[in-house]
Specification:
The chain is mostly helical. It is built from 4 helices and 2 strands; from the N terminus they run H-E-H-H-E-H. The protein starts with 12 loop residues before the first helix and ends in a 5-residue tail after the last helix. The protein has a two-stranded parallel ribbon with strand order 1-2. Helices cover 39% and strands 4% of the residues. The protein has helices at residues 13-23, 33-39, 46-54, 83-93, and strands at 31-32, 67-68. It is globular. The chain binds a DNA duplex (13 and 13 nucleotides) through residues 12, 14-15, 32-34, 37, 42, 44-55, 64, 67, 69-71, 74-78, 83.
DNA sequence: CACATGACCTAAC
DNA sequence: TGTTAGGCCATGT
């Protein structure tokens, strides 16, 4: 499905793990940093996960916009348009925002 | 190697 | 209910 290989990108193993988990998120669905951290085996490394996500090449390689906070709010977005675009994208995919 | 940063989370005031 | 403080982990300087 993924046209690109994360392994081909440069970054630490931790990042690659996070990015892979991101791509594994089904469309129209959202995940929290906590769940993501848990998935990679470090439920306490939520901050490191957030760092990895923000350090990713972002659009259009990795759907970082599918990652939200536990509060239902969005975190941030280092892409074009900013968080606003992120919200729009999620809503377009059928995700409800607080 | 030590310090500082961050798109976080939880608890406490 | 809104803000502050502490804890946690990886990355970059």
């Amino acid at each position: 499905m993924q046209k690109i290989n994360i392994e081909k990108l440069k970054g630490t193993k931790f990042q690659k793990k996070v990015w892979k988990a991101l791509m594994q998120i089904p469309k129209g669905k959202t995940t929290t940093y906590k769940e993501l951290a848990k998935k990679i085996g470090k439920p306490k490394a939520v901050r490191a996960v957030a760092n990895a996500v923000r350090a990713n090449p972002c659009a259009p390689y990795i759907p970082c916009h599918r990652v939200v906070r536990s509060d239902g709010k969005l975190g941030g977005y280092s892409g074009k348009g900013g968080v606003k675009k992120k919200i729009k994208l999620l809503q377009k995919e059928g995700v409800k925002i607080n």
